[in-house]
Amino acid sequence: MKRTKIAAIDVGTTKICTVMADVDDNKNIRILGYGIVPSEGLERGLITNNKTAATSITQSIKKAEKMAGCRLRSAFVNVAGTQMQSQNSRGVVSIPHNNELVRTTDQKRALDVARNVEVPSERRLLHVIPRSYTLDGQPINNPVGLYGFRLDVETHIVTADSISVQNLTKCITSLGIGIDGLVLTSLASAEAVLTEDERQDGVVLADIGGVTTDVAVYRNGNVSYTSSLPIGGCHITNDIAIGMGLSVELAEEIKLKYGNVLPSDNIDITVTEQGYSISCHDLYEIIYARIEELFRLILLRLPESNTQVIPSGLVITGGSANLPGITRIGREVARLPVRAGTPLNLDNHSDTLSDPSYATGIGLLYWKLMNGSSHAGNFSRSGWQIHLPKWLGYFRRQKIGAPQN
User: Fold this and answer.
1) Fewer CB within 10 Å, N or C, the chain?
2) Which CATH number does the domain 196-342 belong to among 3.30.420.40, 3.60.21.10, 3.40.50.1110, 3.30.70.20?
3) Considering the entire predicted model, what is its pTM?
4) Exposed/middle/buried for 62, CB within 10 Å: 0-12, 13-18, 19+?
5) Checking DSSP bridges between strand 203-208 and strand 314-317, what pairing results, if any?
6) HEC readout, 244-293
7) Taking 90 as the threshold, does the pLDDT of residue 301 lie above it?
């Protein structure tokens, strides 16, 4: 059976994650290798120093190539939410054929009309994603092959800052790596962590990255809203550093070692790290305040205040989704079901990548199966499984870290 190589590069503020894989004719993905390194030369998801950013990306790629035993030639790449803007648009066309049978070309014409919105010169069009179709006033899932006279399509359009995208693409292509497609971070993560039932019923995804939280709302199987909040895991670290008079490096270490959103039996304990006495009670209060604020801001950003339209609740992913107690606080604040989202359909050899920190990287691979370089695929997610060779267990035993996105 023929296998085609695919790859993804998750360019985050705190880490670069490269994943190399191949896929067979049945759309089964097999992970070949991955490389995870700290980010340099990026701020708020944007490249601020091309040379140092290129060095970090190169290191990540080389690690993945060494594990995979082959060269990486092109990849799907994420675009940070700080650059994004979104809107919904509608396209309407008539079916000109004598038999009034909707063809693929008619579907494409409707999408072309919907994408014909004014995009400022400083913006770049990233996605035109169908939300719903209506044929002669009747809602349908797929119009092709049906009879009708008037076809309507509702789309979700995402744009990004042109200069930021140019800097990102130039940095990667200067390394001799082609870009198969650019994907908004929240949409990539959603491909990895949301179930089909959640998408159909209504769900909110919140990818808590290093400096932003990217939000996407799904209804009836499709994305209906995207947004970004300027709060992420680094803000929790900074709060700890300021509140306790610590360096940012030590604050991050303490957050990862002792961080908890809920009080525990150890709340009155004082621990010592590098000569500093740390009150667990104070640490919990600092983290709780920021996480509570984050959940309230997510709710405020939603297009409707009526949470009954999202019965599947809130799925959080990204590195900060690993904070103990975060889902419980989310349920108390949002009054919705809340769960931590890890990449789905990984087999039982996937201990390292089966972590919220790697949702975007794995999701970029799924995006390839679902959409190619656009959003026009018809593959079912339910039958997918990502297979990791047993020899990758060696690398898991080396305790590869799981930094925040």
Assistant:
1) N
2) 3.30.420.40
3) 0.86
4) middle
5) parallel
6) HCCCHHHHHHHHHHHCCCCCCCCCCCEEEECCEEEEHHHHHHHHHHHHHH
7) no
